[in-house]
């Protein structure tokens, strides 16, 4: 009799029997609130993505082909890809370095200042598109207020090769939302730096450079690298700001894809546009995979 009771107890512990069904039912019930979210993601992300991937392998006659992907890295398309990567890398680097220094300076202030900066950064990091382009054109354009003020002070902003509508100008505009995003995401990593670590380094005779090299960099580097990758993906996929500023004249991948898909500039090449979009998705997936691996490594190390 005791042997039978032991077997039933073991079966229940392993998940067999009525108790396991009750547990599974409770788990399914707990997933019900996620159904609207999953439906939203499926309809607006997974469903269009599946059609984009499918159409990227078709020609205008609906026949399977790999010719679209062969063109992605040739001629103007390959040049647009390189320009997009270069612009994203530069803006991510500037945003990461400047944002890290700003976040470090804010950590020395009080809680009210930190909250105010965090609230401001959250607003600026989500500012983009046509309003952001109009703001910079009105301020730093050829007839902008800041441009006229600098010219009155003796510095002609447009006296050299700089223009707000070039790659350098778009990079400058991108830094407006890249730096606040870095401040917003990197600040929690700085808050986790314990004062005891600095005190232990000082008590053992370590210099500020020793603390920075042996403690701060190893601890903060994973967060810095992962946030930099996020900034790269953010700039690489930006569309509305560059489109509003340059009217599609700057060779960027998102702008080129828009011209191919809507057919206003280049007709009957929407399948090539879908192939370019799949290439961009592939780059973003690689970057975000590295981002996730870096975060996982930093958590395991801690």
Structure description:
The chain has 302 residues and is mostly helical. The chain has 2 domains: 2-30, no CATH class; 69-301, MetI-like fold, CATH 1.10.3720. 76% of the residues lie in helices and 0% in strands. Helix 5 crosses helix 9 (167-191) and helix 9 crosses helix 11 (208-236). The longest helix has 32 residues, at 75-106. The mean pLDDT is 83.
What form results from the Cα inertia axes? globular
Radius of gyration using CA atoms only: 26 Å
C-alpha end-to-end distance: 50 Å
- Residue ranges: pLDDT <50 for 5 or more in a row? none
Sheet with most strands: none
CATH architecture of the largest domain: Orthogonal Bundle
Offer a concise description of the structure.
With 302 residues, the chain is mainly α. Helices cover 76% and strands 0% of the residues. Helix 6 runs antiparallel to helix 9 (167-191) and helix 9 crosses helix 11.
Record the SSE blueprint:
Elements: H1 2-13, H2 18-30, H3 35-56, H4 67-71, H5 75-106, H6 111-125, H7 129-140, H8 145-152, H9 167-191, H10 195-203, H11 208-236, H12 240-246, H13 253-262, H14 270-301
Helix pairs in contact: 3-14, 5-9, 5-11, 6-9, 7-12, 9-11, 10-11, 11-14, 13-14
Subcellular location: Cell membrane
Family: Belongs to the binding-protein-dependent transport system permease family. CysTW subfamily.
Domain ABC transmembrane type-1: 81-291
